[in-house]
Amino acid sequence: MKAELTYCIDTGVKPVNETKVAGATPEYTGTFGTRWVEINDGRTSQEQFSLDEEGFEFEGSEVLGRSLVSKGIGGCRRGEVA
Predict the structure, then answer these.
(1) Which terminus, N or C, of the chain has the lesser number of Cβ atoms within 10 Å?
(2) DSSP 8-41
(3) Which pTM was predicted?
(4) Domain segments of the chain: what residues?
């Protein structure tokens, strides 16, 4: 599956996300761009991921994955780009 994701572009200036009042729309600084990227189901090789190396890890994803699919959230549905 491919999807367009938004990235923060490194310009040397640190981006800031500031919300001054609870419930207010946050203000963002920084330069952002989009890219089309290939997205794969990492659950099939979840043992290869670690929090220290990739910045995330899977925990209980098999149960979560089945739960999402049963609710029509996971997997490809008719009309989606695969």
Answers:
(1) C
(2) EE--SS--EEE--STTSPPEEESEEEEEEEE---
(3) 0.43
(4) 2-70
